[in-house]
Design brief:
This protein is elongated. The chain has one domain: Beta Barrel (AOC barrel-like). A hairpin with a 6-residue loop joins strand 3 and strand 4. With about 170 residues, it is mainly beta. The protein is about 5% helix and about 55% strand.
């Protein structure tokens, strides 16, 4: 059963980030061994998400709350894949402020190439103003996706989840 964003501790924070944020890419990181990159490609489509809250770890000082959730996604479109991951959240005492991090492993086919890669999420919300970055973890690509780099924008409109994934792969010889 797919769950929608519900007003539960942690889930509300995570859904707030995703519902209002676009991913940003902080730019290239210097690599010890330069890899010739192909052109930037874009994959677009939709995804279904199931967020499964886990038992709370407890409260920190005041009303600050820590949470943990399991994530399951099914991607459709240019990325035909499934993912599983985990999310950690921290909600501040100030309404609309908090953070989340998540890591998910994506397995499937991206524009005809099969393999897997890891996505890293970093969300920060300050009094309702979100910032969200979703990037491919360095050197996490496998199979035909080995060497993949990129960032994903998550879009939520009319209750539907969509993505725009900008990525590069090493040039073939």
């Amino acid at each position: 059963m797919m769950r929608r964003c519900v007003p539960a501790i942690g889930v509300a924070l995570a859904c707030g980030f995703i519902a209002h944020a676009r991913a940003t890419n902080s730019g290239p990181v210097d690599k010890p061994d330069a890899v010739k990159r192909g052109e930037t490609m874009h994959a677009q489509g939709t995804f279904d998400v199931n967020i499964i809250p886990q038992p709370p770890e407890g409260k920190a000082e005041g009303s600050t709350t820590l949470g943990r959730m399991l994530i399951e996604k099914k991607f459709h479109g240019d990325l035909e894949a499934v993912s599983k991951g985990q999310m950690l959240t921290g909600m501040a005492e100030v309404k609309g402020s908090g953070v989340y991090v998540a890591i998910e492993q994506v397995k499937g086919t991206l524009n005809g190439r099969s393999g897997s890669f890891i996505l890293h999420h970093l969300g920060i919300m300050v009094r309702g103003v979100p910032q969200l970055s979703v990037t491919v973890a360095p050197d996490s690509g496998t199979g035909e996706l080995a060497g993949i780099e990129g960032s994903m924008t998550i879009i939520i409109a009319d209750g539907k989840h969509a993505y725009d994934f900008a990525y590069t792969l090493p040039k073939g010889d």
